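Query structure, 399 tokens:
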């Protein structure tokens, strides 16, 4: 008995070391492309921890804000069809008047929304579930900033503009946003992709990349969260069904700000279509005049920011622009201007970047990325992204 009692203090004095969680390697894919070829460079990590399934180059992933670039291409294709005018008051399409409460006499144009210069703010939130009103959300003064009238407002990246733009595209075309993107972008480019898993089908769902936070916690798209589970935002008590959805009312249900699921081999096909924006080819994805408008708006899109979104227009981002002091010059570090879009959500970081003069490009994503050490508003590319692109540039030069 005495020996047993003596053993107790000994155990208390030397407790077992606490277990430290070590997550599996993050799923990471980098694909390089030019006008003729698409080549995986880096494919590593696990797409799903539970099954220990390795990620593959074209496994579909929630690509975050690169979805906005896809929205821009959809809008520009509607311009080419003669169904949309970027400079028209969006109220004409919506059927109700949209105005900033601070500037009630100033119209809001798609150009302003696609360039984040309409004065919108995410402080009121930007997800409007099925069963709620987009018009009511935008009637909330918290959805706006008093920084000048639309078009002259200071640049502020606001996700709330995306549901509004997507709803305008629906109203202008009479088509549901997911079907519109499929018709105008995915199908013509031979891409298999979807928004919020709507229409992706079992084959793509079976290859979904689950997004994890750096702690190993599931962030999005775990197998249990895929169809037949509900994959769109709905209000409590609302049926998870788009059967009675009316295009032009609330396209937020498709998460247009970040909800595209796509593999990187397919995303590279979209990247290839961007080469023609710079050159304005007659047989390009966009009509020459529309392509030139997009590039002209981007070229004029200095935001005044010096951390990340330094040059931005029509949902295209320009990095490493000459003559700017901006931390966006650290991703590739080779002094070559590239345009495309970045993405960050649910522990994922992503990018689509093209060098139109060299006709080369890269798409990438990496998961389990920890929050920035200085907070969410520190901006700039992360150390992991920079290291990833350094590897990609080296690999791209090898035969």
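Result returned for the query:
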């Amino acid at each position: 008995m005495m020996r047993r009692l003596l053993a107790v203090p000994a155990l208390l004095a030397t407790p077992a070391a606490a277990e430290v969680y070590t997550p599996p390697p993050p799923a990471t894919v980098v694909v390089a492309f030019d006008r003729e070829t698409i080549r995986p460079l880096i494919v590593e990590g696990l797409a799903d921890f539970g099954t220990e399934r390795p990620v593959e180059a074209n496994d579909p992933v929630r690509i975050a804000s690169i979805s906005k670039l896809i929205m821009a291409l959809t809008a520009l294709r509607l311009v080419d069809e003669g169904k949309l005018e970027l400079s028209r008051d969006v109220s004409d399409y919506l059927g109700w008047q949209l105005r900033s409460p601070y500037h009630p006499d100033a119209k809001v144009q798609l150009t302003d929304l696609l360039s984040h210069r309409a004065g919108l703010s995410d402080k009121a939130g930007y997800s409007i579930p099925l069963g709620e009103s987009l018009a009511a959300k935008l009637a909330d003064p918290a959805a706006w900033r008093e920084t000048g009238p639309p078009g002259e407002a200071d640049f502020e990246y606001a996700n709330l503009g995306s549901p509004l733009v997507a709803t305008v595209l629906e109203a202008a075309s009479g088509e549901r946003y997911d079907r519109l993107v499929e018709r105008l972008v995915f199908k013509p480019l031979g891409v298999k992709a979807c928004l919020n898993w709507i229409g992706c089908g079992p084959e793509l769902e079976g290859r979904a990349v689950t997004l994890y936070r750096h702690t190993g916690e599931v962030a999005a798209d775990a197998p249990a969260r895929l169809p037949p589970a509900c994959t769109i935002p709905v209000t409590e008590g609302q049926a998870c069904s788009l059967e009675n959805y009316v295009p032009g009312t609330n396209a937020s249900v498709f998460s247009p700000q970040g909800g595209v699921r796509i593999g990187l081999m397919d995303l590279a096909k979209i990247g290839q279509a961007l080469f023609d924006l710079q050159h304005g080819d007659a047989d390009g994805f966009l009509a020459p005049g529309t392509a030139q408008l997009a590039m002209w708006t981007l070229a004029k899109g200095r935001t005044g920011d010096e951390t990340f979104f330094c040059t931005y227009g029509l949902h295209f981002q320009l990095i490493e622009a000459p003559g700017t002091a901006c931390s966006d010059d650290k991703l590739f570090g080779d002094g070559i201007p590239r345009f495309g879009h970045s993405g960050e959500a649910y522990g994922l970081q992503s990018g689509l970047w093209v060098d139109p003069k060299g006709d080369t490009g890269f798409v990438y994503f990496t998961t389990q990325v920890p929050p920035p050490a200085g907070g969410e508003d520190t901006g700039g590319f992360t150390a992991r992204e920079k290291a990833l692109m350094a590897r990609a540039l080296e690999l791209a030069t090898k035969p």
